[in-house]
Amino acid sequence: MAARTADICVIANPKSGAAQRNPGALDAAMAVFGPRAVLRKFSGDPAPQAEQAVRDGFRIIVAAGGDGTVAGVAHALAGTDSALAVLPLGTFNYFARGLQMPEDPEAAARAILSGQDHSIAVATLNGRLFLNNVSIGLYPAILEEREATYARFGRYRILAHLASLRTILRFQRPYRMLLELDETRRLVRTPMVFIARSAYQLDQFGLKGGEAISADRFALFLAQKQTRLGFLRLAWRLVRRRVDHDRDVQVLTPERIGITVLGRQRISVALDGEKLRMDLPLTIALSNDQLHVIVPPEKPLPAKAPPQGRGA
């Protein structure tokens, strides 16, 4: 009997949170995949490796890492026939949890082997794909502090929360922004804008907006708090899932978003847990390109029609 040709390419980030805490996790998953899979490691941006895997004809390309790794691989796969699968080896794994993928590496590998191909709409920020969220203001500063903490002490979830607290205590002044939301324009003053495309992540924090995301819109949150104490209270309410959607945040659900920060030409942006410097203005929209994803067979996502007439 002829050996089966590998049709799965696993792209691994050896510096992800869970990979460092559990160095045997990737090997365990590869043992489950067997001869169907080949492993390719990367450092930096995973997109070039994913693009090469598409050219090499792999049917399924597995992003083994955290949400940043998954977003980088997804950027290369959107609009292609190759399907994205996720081996959750990161710190929070919001996208994988939203797909209801098991967090155990071996169980996740078995779910990928028996999973179903499902197409989803994806969003872009100035042409760069994202899956979970985009934020400007306080959150990118939290990411910078978190990465510095990780570099000193290792990648642990509790350290991410402590880094958030430290950043809030050092909080400075809000931004003045011009927001273009579909056909409307508004001038706002806020320390943070958070734009979500993950209904799962919103549910974890007790936030509204999941229905808008299911309808291929965005859930945009403007922080109402302007002081350190106000932000500490907001963080505590988020942990307890008790955010007041009138007092703590303003929630908007546009299909397309433009952001200009007055007095700035570039700004730090948090995109799926990765900090970037980007030119202004920012344009956030759904892409015409669909993304194929593998979901567990017993956890199919609801069927949705492809978006019409949208671009980024």
Automatic annotation (TrEMBL):
Looking up Gene3D superfamilies in the UniProt record yields: 2.60.200.40, Probable inorganic polyphosphate/atp-NAD kinase, domain 1
Query: Which UniProt keywords are listed?
Result: Kinase, Transferase
Domain spans labelled DAGKc? 3-129
Task: Output the InterPro entries linked to this UniProt entry.
Answer: ATP-NAD_kinase_N, Diacylglycerol_kinase_cat_dom, Lipid_Phosphate_FormReg, NAD/diacylglycerol_kinase_sf
Kindly list the GO molecular function terms attached to this UniProt entry.
kinase activity
The protein depicted here goes by the name Diacylglycerol kinase
Task: Provide the species name.
Answer: Fuscovulum blasticum DSM 2131
Source organism lineage?
Answer: Bacteria, Pseudomonadati, Pseudomonadota, Alphaproteobacteria, Rhodobacterales
